[in-house]
Here is the input.
Amino acid sequence: MFSDTHFHLKYMAERGIDCSSLLAALAERDTFFALDIGTYCDDLISRMRIAETGCSAIDNLTAAQKARRMLYFAAGIWPAPEAISARMEQVDTLRAIIYDAQKAGTRLVALGECGMDHHWNTENAEGGKVLLDGEEELFSLQLELARDCSLPVIVHSREAFDSTISCIRNIGYDRGIIHCYSYGVDEARAFLDRGWYISFSGSVTYTKKSCLDEIQALLQYVPRDRLLIETDAPYLTPVPYRGKTNTPVFICHTYEYVASCIGITSTELSVVVDENIKQLFNLGENVSREISPVPIQR
Here is the structure.
């Protein structure tokens, strides 16, 4: 119950979260799907090891098995200036790791996160237009890689709608998630018309009273068969725990908020989200496969 389509276990651990206790808590409530997201070209193996170490430390064998069954992984390159400047080499590294992961039969189910961030990467930033052109190429290369590997894409798009949708149109690959959605109805229509899923995080619970009608209209506009929920933990902790380090345990509050806006219960929304997850990530036999302590040799 209450799947989480986007979190960063490594960053939670770095902030002092006990991964074993966290995974045990998620297993106890029978979480169906929990997706650990990549941000560096070569972080997949280390993240899988962190997850397996957490699962192995769970005392209850049944809970440990449940934790392994719910965990899935994505691998991608966040658009940091360092990654942009070395984009060709970074994508080559990512490609090799994804190929190895798929060959090894790991629980890698998506490419990401990748995309555009014009909050940090601006024309006034160091590098200016060269940085922005490189960011677009880095995103495009990863969209092409996702298509080559038949993987959905986890897209980061912050203050960069025009650049994001332009890149997607140019590549023509429309399978994935616009994560931590932060635009309006018009932008949602553009993504939805192309077949994308839209994911909401705890940030929707920060809505000011003056914007309640606007966010409710947005949540009601997104078709239920394209709607996903995430934490982006350790970031964007939902109300009433805003200010604390976020974890997937808190995602129930985002489910409750979104469910109230669209007129269903949080339990009903959980069923909707799980069905969408099954469709997007093509989950079938993979549901029963457990992660390996050392999933890839590299």
